[in-house]
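so the lab meeting is tmrw and i was supposed to have these ready like two days ago... anyway. pasting both below. for each one the top line is the aa sequence and the line under it is the structure tokens. i havent really looked at them closely yet so no promises
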Amino acid sequence: MITAEHLVKTFTRNEKKNRKTEINAVDDISLTVREGEIVGILGPNGAGKTTMLRMMSKLMKPTGGQVSIRIGKTEISDEIEVKRHIGYLSNNTKLYGRLSARELLQMLGTIYGMTQEDTERKIDQISNILSMESFIDNRIEKLSTGQTQRASIARCLIHDPQVYIFDEPTLGLDIISSAAIIEFMKGERERGKTVLYSTHYMEEAEYLCDRIVMIHQGKIISEGTPAALKAQTGQGSLRDIFSGLIQEGRRNEY
């Protein structure tokens, strides 16, 4: 389980004439993601989604507030232990281009203290899930955008983490590969995994997620199950719900 309490992240922006302005990319967000739950994070570019996810994975220190990660009844605070329990996918992760996807996963298996037998078994499983058989032994620098994305996702799965924090996992993937990721996430939920899942694809979020959190300008503007959000707003889709909330917020600014 991951709990964020009153998270704030402030950045300083340089303006003209040497002026500096502070902006809150994340502005007082509180959120709990339970075991066996997939929570979808929706919002436009610049809404603060990635900053929030980086803080919730403890890759970035918040300006204010705190994040706690519990595995079972144990709170995990040690930086190394946190990494062992989280599979974090960023949309700008750089991979070792001269390695093949298989070599990358073998290296990570060693880093995570896995046996060679367990590593190879997990690589075979991941390769099958993500349909990587045709390119897993090719150098990463030679892969297509979609293949590179699958290799990046694979590195998050190799150590069988208890928590997944995925930022745009299906970006650049074809329909078949995207469907494989979505079905895999559903299976992990059945295994009791905790999943934070950021996406721009509203239909994907509606199909996959137990709960939706909509973010705009660093704040949560709505939260609930897809069915509850539809009932509250009278809208038939998450896309219409989100558009309506944004328009209402803009009207209230004037």
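ok protien two:
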Amino acid sequence: MSYLFTSESVSEGHPDKVCDRVSDTVLDLFLRAEPEARVACETFATTDRVIIGGEVRASADNLPSILGKLEGAVRGAIKDIGYEQKKFHHAHLKFQSFLHEQSADIAMGVDGGSDKDEGAGDQGLMFGYACRETDVLMPAAIHYSHKILQKLAAVRKADADSILGPDSKSQITLVYDDQGRPTSAHKVVLSTQHADGASINDIRTLVKPIIADVLPQGWMVGEEDLLVNPTGNFVIGGPDGDAGLTGRKIIVDTYGGAAPHGGGAFSGKDPTKVDRSAAYAARYLAKNVVAAGLADRCTIQLAYAIGVAEPVSVYADTHGTGTISDKRLEDALIESMNLTPRGIREHLGLNKAIYAPTAAYGHFGRLAGEAGPGSFSWEATDLVDKLASAAK
């Protein structure tokens, strides 16, 4: 039986994504100075104002220098996104920082857990997913939603006089056949901030070729199924149009609703926080399972207890597509990768300033190294041979 499925994405200029970018910029600033720094940074943005707060830890030698660079780094990130609006301008907005020292109780559990290894920074459950719907082993609806907005941003930034603004959203509804394979697009929705005076026709003319170029051959929808700026006007955008907060777009960040989410946000958290690092590890494992030919679809769940290094559970579901039993696959996963927080960080090289590029257009489905050395390392398929061997 065929069905429809929808996913959405939001651009780097969306208010919540501005906050994710700021939080990850702060994280990168700390990690660049001190790879073992601890950061949990939250951001709030509204008209003419950005506020950051949270818990950090760095050495006394490095901390003053890092804090002295905070404001410039935040303003630079907002400038890179493209905000020079009257009521939200990178050079003129009010900036406040309320970062403070990390809780000693949390630090104690992370630095030396109950099993004498580095413990998890919190309890929680994380999911990873991979499937054969796209060449990057991601669900198709979220993948193409991201790609439309990435290309839209590139077009905007390449033209100093562009009618496009930084804030935009995409949404794609796909048709799936009775085998669960995407076969065509049903509806495409695109809302983009624009210059005052730009007409809907101007915007449609600009965005239609972008959408057609991203979608697979023959998938482009007709005029009646392409909804561009349905409200009719989108001049006021970004944090001036709607307040933003870190971590409010976690489904956009992961699988667009096509797979479960443990609930934890990623941005602004250093990799001792398993909300982030274990979600990356779960995606890495799921992607390598599919790339190794052990399944066509794979969902992996990892779960942790605060202060304890080893995961409390490892779960795999190949949705009836596996070449071995799910229990055998779970054993192979445990055999193939050290899933303690330190093991994950070392295997994937996560103690680096690699996080700002993850803040928009998805943490998954990217190319390993696409934003510089070490970036998106969890998208590599270098575990294929080891997994295949362990699964025998």
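from a quick look at the 2nd one: The first strand starts at residue 3 and ends at 10. The mean pLDDT is 95. will dig more after coffe
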